[in-house]
Write a structure and sequence with these properties.
The structure is a homotrimer of 156-residue chains. Helices cover 25% and strands 43% of the residues of chain A. By secondary structure, chain A is of the alpha+beta class. In chain A, strands 1, 2, 3, 4, 5, 6 and 7 form a seven-stranded mixed sheet that branches.
Chain lengths: 156, 156, 156
């Protein structure tokens, strides 16, 4: 891992979080490969190998469908969200890409409300080189808090 | 962006946060150029291009004046604050400096109280080279939570 | 400080946090030298130079004893914890190692509960080269919140 590659990796993480926090949801699928997978799952289920997930998508097309849902059809109280993400740890690098992990906390603020912790946990990621740069082939967001205040509309 | 420059940039961010968290307010203006600007503004106003800001200073002399105010004249319940700051994203680099963005959360703890989120949001910064190293020519702190628990005394 | 060394340093911090957040307590002593010291102390006492600490250990053997206590003997409500750690600042490098500081927040989630801030503060560390890589010769965790919700079982 040299600096150039580390910087590209970190930028992928930071740009991903910034796009979501700006609610620029249309950009979200572009952080993934065409067959990229995304899963949002409780730590309790992840640790036990149980399949139930809060969100699970298996292609960029499914991600785009979710963006349409979140932006156009789900009726919800408006809120801001903000990621604070630790520097990713590189767990391994192989023919199928980089496997990385990062801790995160997402803080939600509703209008005229105090900030509250919406989600806290870690991401487990597989990242691959593409002609457009590094992209997520898999992103699994494992959240510690199985009780979510209200509901999660936007991706984490 | 090579490692040396990235490290200098990151150190500016980290040293800034550490000085404030240690309540070493006298050092705060020194992170800015002589005509450095500092603004603390709600995301709601920032996004709409409205001018109202919670704090707005247009020179290092104004920053020093604020330090005097915060340290010597404002009567307030004592508290500790702690920044946790994401690694800055470099948005562009040009003749007028580096434009960067970073997410932050500031956690406040009052004596005998539980920690609470005081402010969460991002900084939008313009950073320039000076003979003393990298300094903020502009720092705009855009906070998500328009409702602030109690009040903000020290800079963010 | 070149990139390779910075990366090793950051990895020490990130691996330490990940091991604790995975509750892989048996690994915790291995982040220290044989005579490594660990202290968990309130900012109030640290700032005044008072000796009272919540935890204080003076060797790897004492750390192992604590792991046994935390894992096997202390009866407590189960919880998950999650560190989000800022990038460490290198304060100095000398014959006795690297002196570094990093901000942290630890978020605790109890089963069926909302996440809450368990501890927030900074670590003051002395890190040395060993044949196994970088290790903590001293880690002093100084927490801002002298009021701890419930109690701290696992190390921070």
């Amino acid at each position: 891992m040299n600096f150039e590659r580390w910087h590209a990796l970190h930028s992928l993480y930071a740009d991903y979080a910034a796009a979501l926090d700006a609610r620029d949801l249309a950009r979200w699928p572009d952080f993934f490969t065409d067959d990229g997978r995304y899963k949002l799952q409780s730590r309790e289920n992840f640790d036990r190998g149980l399949p139930l997930a809060m969100l699970a998508f298996e292609s960029k097309a499914m991600l785009k469908d979710r963006v349409f849902g979140a932006a156009e059809t789900i009726y919800h109280d408006p809120y801001h969200q903000r990621h604070v993400v630790g520097v990713p740890r590189v767990l391994s690098e192989g023919a199928d890409g980089l496997r990385c992990e990062a801790s995160y906390v997402v803080i939600r603020t509703k209008r005229d409300g105090l900030p509250e912790i919406l989600s806290v946990g870690r991401t487990l990621d597989r990242i691959v080189d593409t002609p457009q740069g590094l992209r997520f082939a898999e992103r699994c967001v494992v959240f510690d808090n199985d009780l979510v205040p209200n509901s999660i509309v936007d991706p984490i």
